[in-house]
Prior knowledge:
alpha+beta; Jelly Rolls; 13-stranded antiparallel sheet; two-stranded antiparallel sheet; 6 helices
Amino acid sequence: MIPPAAAVERLVGTGRTRVADLLPAAEATALHALLDHGPVDWQRAIETPGDVEVPVALFEAQPIEEQIRIMSRVHAEARDGFQFIFDRWRIDVGGQASPAAPALLADLHRRFNSPEFLAFARALTGDDRIAYVDAQATRFLPGHFLNRHSDQLDRAGRLYAYVLNLCPRWRVEWGGLLQFLDDEGDVTETLTPGFNTLNLFRVPQPHAVSMVSPFAGAPRLSITGWWRAFPPEPVT
């Protein structure tokens, strides 16, 4: 894989870039179908002290009063601080694909950590430190969002954050926009979800995902993670 010269130049100039048609079209289509229709055991992710996730089926089986209470807390904390709500499924566990990962997701994890893809990543960024790619599947439904943050976590070796968009059709009015912010909190660039398009940006960099609209015509689906200097510690 040879990175497009324009993508390399854009990354150098702004600290972020896009690469269209990252995967073979048939593979991207199959990934979208898997995330859209399953089987993926989605977990509902909300910012909590213990980074606790709850299976979506269990979350939605709670009495409606409890769901309203949780969402009221999420919105109150989001008003002036960091908070998020979206669904995810962790493909990467301790530096390797989860044994429970569907074959398509396990294959993608292997592809991302192949010598060929790592060479592509280093050529795109000019950064020879890239040694590992982690991954999670993400799904933003109406009302889901991710507040401003920078992705900085020094102990994790995060060098670049990526989003592999898997949205065959998306309107900007639907929200779910990847927005980059300056030090004053003003939006400097907005990227709309696309299909089989890689969004990549240098870490740390302030950014957010705007709330998906109640009238969005599809879930915002993607594979996300970080290009890292080293893999995570194995799970024991």
